[in-house]
Amino acid sequence: MAASASGTGVVDDSVHFNPNPNAPSTSTSLTRILLHSAPESFQSATEHPFLRLAGRGTLPRATLSRWLSQDRLYAQSYIGFIGALIARVELPDAYVSSQDKNLTKENDNDKDKDEDEAIRPWRVVTLLSAALDNILRELAFFESTAEKYGLSLDAPSRSDGDGDGEAVFAAEPATQQYIDLFRSFAADPSRSLLEGLVVLWATETVYLRAWTYAASFTDTDTNTNTNTNTNTDINTDHIHEPKEGSGPPGTGTGKLDPFAADQDSGALRSAFIPNWTSIEFADFVRDIGHITDLLAEREDAVNRNLDVYLAVWAHILDVERRFWPQVEHDS
């Protein structure tokens, strides 16, 4: 299921997390090289105390609202980022069937199709279109879940202020760095499609790993999340909707939510964490890694521009570490 709470955070490859920090990579794929390049930074970015409290149901509602409000800003800026990446894809004149365009389980190991110069761009577009559709669903999911559990999506941070002592809602420094990074792909045509895919893969990989870590703190005897997955890979056509039930809050079956006594009334452990650790999301991250590695291989990126992608990965890990709110350290 989820990674151990005492795990190192080191990842074996773009599909499976490896608890052994000394395990060598057996592949020279770009994503595997990146995953092995900064294990301590990866751990810091994905095993934050905020996540431990979230997984235990002890994260204060106000803290969750502040973080969720920042994550909403992140998600909104993601839309323009994906659009900028789609604009970078050069589609071929050759006809490509709908079946060949899609990222499916049947096509996963079809190397001939992966290497087809006409098919590959369409698969990039399919992936990015799915990512865009997925983030729109995610924003709707934020809204409905926040309404159900009494959370705010524009909660000011403690550090915010307008000079009169009143807190105001604005992007925090780490959030603004993500927004600026995403916007740079629209503003700077010199940034490549591959660099953008590395950003996409990196952000989704750390997000999945972080919430998988959080899920590991939920008591397995009462955990209603049966979809947690240690894969870092997405079919993006599925987002869990908040479960409707007869009780406030319910589970959708008329039974009392086992996490209703959590400080957030179960928002994280009944809704958000199952969504962010689902098999579907893991499949999506895998698909991003697959497409990224194919494009990197085609461009000989490991030999020609590895320093660029290592810098991107290091930057994402640094920003993600600071994206989590500071909380009281638990025992």
TrEMBL record:
It holds the Pfam family TENA_THI-4. CDD domains: TenA_E_At3g16990-like. Residues 221-234 have a biased composition (Low complexity). InterPro entries: Haem_Oase-like_multi-hlx, Polyketide-peptide_reg, Thiaminase-2/PQQC. Residues 43-213 form the Thiaminase-2/PQQC domain. It comes from the Eukaryota. Residues 235-244 have a biased composition (Basic and acidic residues). Residues 1-28, 221-259 are annotated as: Disordered. Gene3D superfamilies: Heme oxygenase-like (1.20.910.10). Residues 17-28 have a biased composition (Polar residues). GO terms for biological process: thiamine metabolic process. This is Thiaminase-2/PQQC domain-containing protein. It comes from Capronia epimyces CBS 606.96.
